[in-house]
Amino acid sequence: MAPYNEFVRGANTFIMTSQERHEARFQRRKAKRQARKQARCNALGPVDKVFSYRKMFFYGKKCCNGVRWKQSVQNFENHLFSGTANRRRKVLDQTWKPMKCSHFTLCIGEEPFQVDQQNRPFTAIAPVVAVKLFL
Predict the structure, then answer these.
(1) pLDDT tens-digit profile of 13-66?
(2) 102: three-class secondary structure by DSSP
């Protein structure tokens, strides 16, 4: 028969408090989430294949559909060839950061509401990632 002090806290490392069990469960789940995330990233392939110039240029053109009348979109499209090369180089160098969104209030009738508009370069890069992740 085992001595009594084997079941006393500190004498046996297998006896855990509820907080320790909670932390251990959290760490196990965190490790599983990280492993699944890494597996998804590995399935996409290398970064230079995901962010190919062709795909970025295609989605840069596609994000302009329906809003080509805007001057900012026309400027974006005029510089799309060189802008895509610059953005791709920044993405591959891991120095690309999305610019700030435009925040403004739009009043239609008597109902004002807040609008957060993303900039064009972000809407050109985001579909490249989304299409690869969700298909």
Answers:
(1) 567 788 999 999 999 999 999 999 989 888 888 888 888 889 889 988 888 888
(2) strand
CA separation for the pair 27, 54 (Å, rounded): 40
What token pair was written down for 55?
A: 């795909």
What are 98's two structure tokens?
Answer: 């999305």
Would you say how long the chain is, in residues? Answer: 135
Identify the pLDDT of residue 52: 87
Q: How far apart are CA 16 and CA 13, in angstroms?
A: 7
Backbone angles phi, psi at 25, to 5 degrees: -60, -45
Beta pairing partners, 106:
113
Residue reference for tokens 């120095």: 95
Burial 52-81 (b: 16+ CB within 10 A, else e): eeebbbebbeebbeeeeeeeebeebbeebe
